[in-house]
């Protein structure tokens, strides 16, 4: 893979057509790039903001081959695109982050084994690839525990709580009786994330750790910065940096962690792409995560991650987006809507970021 930068005017191929693709395409346009969106949804959030898109499933090789011809670089906005799709494209055009990093991040067990090999602190876990393997895994981990399918969840079937051993069969049924990982339940005091950006030259920068608050397993709010003393914040950044380097990742790596009452940071999940917990950077950072992503994958110098203020980012989920008139009337509130026609419950329709002066000066 050449280390030469991809110059403005080039076309970036984007697998995935949701809001992360949309906001990446907008940032790419600001730097003079074109984006060609490849995804399955008509009139998608990403396709709405570019004049080049392919409406297709990820398995259509003819469509993928034509897509590879039409772009100079391929990236993706979510990690559940099939690995074969990324590998097929990587034979034709640079894919960043590369398929090897994608393989780790789309499988919870691979992710945990990778994290453990890198010396990250993790919740205790055991593989539960079959129903028969669940009992010994429960013996080892104890309860309460969380059973998570190793691969992409659907219809909220990706994870289930096991409060007592008698719940095991029901939990396995709830996640669709698929290969899984059993994790010890962590009584964390808050959740946080760090987004690392790593360039083609290996240079890595990190956005500061932020606190994430969830409702119904969906990110509701991100508080910037996370309530961590400086040494702990530096420790969280070091974890993200180490993982991005060990994956040899070019692009962004979001690392979700649990902070425990005794001050430990347990790595929970990795995402090799822009992340919902980084949306605040659009309004409160010298370089936002989407531009940083474009810079990294195109081989450009990374931008400053200086934080210009404190911030709170709230997702607008389902009919919460109907509050747009009052949000627009609120001085200083920064509204972002994703162009989705139908506000289904649980669907991320937009977000709003509110800034306040930095408390740490
Ligand atoms: P995940 O899909 O792994 O990001 O998990 C979704 C949410 O479930 C997390 O943000 C936590 O709130 C919760 N959760 C996941 N794993 C655990 C765990 N081992 N202990 C406690 N809560 C968890």
State the end-to-end CA separation. Answer: 43 Å
Share of residues in strands: 25-35%
Mean pLDDT: 96
CATH topology of the largest domain: D-amino Acid Aminotransferase, Chain A, domain 1
What CATH architecture of the largest domain would you give? Answer: 2-Layer Sandwich
Give the oligomer, counting copies of the same chain as homo and different chains as hetero.
single chain
Shape, please? globular
User: What's the helical proportion of residues?
Assistant: 25-40%
Classification by helices and strands: alpha+beta
Can you write the helix and strand succession as a string? EHEEHEHHHEHEEHEEEEEHEEHHEHEE
User: Count of helices?
Assistant: 11
Sheet with the most strands, sense and barrel status: 9 strands, antiparallel
- Radius of gyration from the CA trace? 20 Å
Structure description:
- By secondary structure, the chain is an alpha+beta fold.
- It has three domains: 11-95, Rossmann fold (3-Layer(aba) Sandwich), CATH 3.40.50; 124-184, ATP-grasp fold, A domain (Dna Ligase, domain 1), CATH 3.30.1490.20; 190-356, ATP-grasp fold, B domain (D-amino Acid Aminotransferase, Chain A, domain 1, 2-Layer Sandwich), CATH 3.30.470.20.
- It has helices at 19-30, 61-70, 83-90, 99-105, 108-117, 131-141, 168-174, 230-246, 281-284, 289-298, 324-328, and strands at residues 11-15, 34-39, 52-55, 73-76, 125-128, 145-149, 159-162, 180-184, 188-198, 204-206, 210-215, 218-224, 251-260, 265-271, 310-317, 334-337, 348-356.
- Strands 9, 10, 11, 12, 13, 14, 15, 16 and 17 form a nine-stranded antiparallel β-sheet that branches.
- The longest helix has 17 residues, at 230-246.
- Bound molecules: adenosine monophosphate.
- Adenosine monophosphate is lined by residues 123, 146, 159, 183, 185-186, 191, 214, 217, 256, 268-269.
């Amino acid at each position: 893979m050449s280390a030469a930068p991809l110059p403005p005017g080039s076309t970036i191929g984007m697998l995935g057509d949701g809001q992360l693709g949309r906001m990446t395409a907008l940032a790419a346009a600001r730097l003079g790039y074109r984006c060609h969106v490849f995804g399955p949804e008509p009139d998608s959030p990403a396709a709405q903001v570019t004049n080049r898109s392919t409406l297709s499933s990820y398995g259509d090789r003819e469509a993928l081959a034509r897509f590879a011809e039409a772009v100079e670089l391929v990236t993706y906005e979510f990690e559940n695109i099939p690995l074969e799709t990324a590998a097929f494209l990587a034979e034709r055009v640079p894919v960043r982050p590369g398929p090897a990093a994608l393989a780790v991040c789309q499988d919870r067990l691979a992710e945990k084994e990778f994290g453990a090999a890198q010396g990250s602190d993790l919740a205790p876990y055991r593989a539960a690839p079959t129903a028969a393997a669940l009992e010994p895994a429960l013996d080892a981990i104890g309860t309460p525990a969380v059973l998570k399918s190793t691969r992409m969840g659907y219809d909220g079937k990706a994870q289930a709580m096991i409060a007592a051993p008698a719940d095991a069969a029901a939990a396995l049924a709830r996640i669709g009786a698929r290969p899984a990982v059993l994790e010890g339940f962590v009584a964390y005091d808050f959740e946080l994330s760090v987004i690392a950006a790593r360039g083609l030259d290996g240079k890595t920068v990190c956005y500061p750790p932020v606190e994430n608050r969830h409702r119904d397993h969906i990110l509701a709010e991100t508080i910037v910065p996370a309530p961590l003393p400086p040494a702990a914040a530096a420790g969280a950044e070091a974890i993200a940096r180490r993982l991005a380097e060990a994956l040899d990742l070019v692009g962004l790596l979001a690392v979700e962690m649990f902070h425990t009452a005794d001050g430990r940071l347990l790595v929970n999940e990795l995402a090799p792409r822009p992340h919902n917990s980084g949306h605040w950077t659009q309004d409160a950072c010298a370089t936002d995560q989407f531009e940083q992503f474009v810079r990294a994958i195109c081989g450009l110098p990374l931008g400053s991650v200086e934080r210009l203020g404190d911030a709170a980012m709230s997702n607008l989920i389902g009919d919460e987006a109907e509050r747009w008139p009052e949000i627009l009337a609120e001085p200083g509130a920064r509204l972002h809507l994703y162009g989705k026609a139908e506000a289904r419950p649980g669907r991320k329709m937009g977000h709003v970021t509110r800034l306040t002066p930095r408390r740490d000066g």
